[in-house]
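Format notes (please read before filing issues)

Several people have asked whether sequences and structure tokens are stored in separate files. They are not. Every record keeps both together, in the order shown below: the sequence lines, then the token lines. Line labels are part of the format and must not be stripped during preprocessing.
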Amino acid sequence: MNRRALLLLAALFSLSVRAEAQTALPSLSVSEAHEAAKAGKLVLVDIRTPDEWADTGVPEGAIKLDMTGSAFEVRLAALKLDHPGKPIALICRTGNRTSTLQKTLAGRGWTNLVDVRGGLLGNPRDKGWLAEGLPVTVP
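Then the structure lines:
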């Protein structure tokens, strides 16, 4: 490859990295999500499965919406219509599924989705809902 081509590739890579940094998707800690949900500033949606809800309970105030269900995206769209202008905060077990789901849906044009970092059980970077001692309801 010649020098000009390498410079062009470097410039394109730099633009791509800057664009990704500028379009970072929003996230909240579990405590921030809990406070915002209590204040009615967002809609908290637990995207885990019924078995997971039974194992740990459901974050207080969260709407249960199993992401493996066939009508998941349709039901999520209905929630968005029912709560116009409010962000929808997605929570799962550790934050992995919500982060991936948020990126996937953003690629389909969804906006105003927030990832709740750490989920119910936490991960090496973030404390989870349960570790923070936040309230749950038993389904």
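For reference, the curators noted about this record: The radius of gyration is 18 Å. The chain has one domain: 25-137.
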